[in-house]
Amino acid sequence: MDEFGSTSNDPVGDVPENLRSLFNKPDDVKVQKLPCNLPGLKSMAVHFGAGARTVPHIHHEGQHLVFVEGVGVVGDETGVRVVRAGDVVSSPPGGWHWHGATPGSAATHVTFEQPGDFDRDVERRDWDDTYPSDLGR
After folding, report:
1. What are the two backbone dihedrals, phi and then psi, of residue 81, each rounded to the nearest 5 degrees?
2. What are the phi and psi torsion angles at 56 (to 5°)?
C-alpha cells in the first residue's frame, strides 16, 4: 500500500544525538521522517535555519537531495552552488560534499539515502572559506 507524508504537516523533531556532529548548528536543524518504500533507502526532510549546514561528509552509496523550500547551498569537489526550491542534487557514491541553508535564508531539502551510509571523517578542505555572509543574495 502507498504511504503518504508531508514536509509541512508531519511532525518534526530535533536532530538525533548520533547525528548532531554532522551539523555546524544542530540546534537550528529539524528532521522529519518521511515514508519511503524503496528497497534499502530512507527518506527525511531536513529543515535548516539560516546559517545551518552540514560539515563535509561522504555517502558510500550516494545521496539524492530535493530542495523544497528556501535558499540553500551545496558544496562539492567542483565548488559551491546556491540552490532553491525545485532544485535537485544527486551526489555520487563516495562524493565529498556538504549542504544546508545560506547565511541569510532557511532551507529545506528531502533526502533519499541508505540508512547510516555516511562518513564524517573526511577533509574539511575549503568548507570554512567558501561560505561568505552574502552567499545567496
Report:
1. -130, 140
2. -60, 145
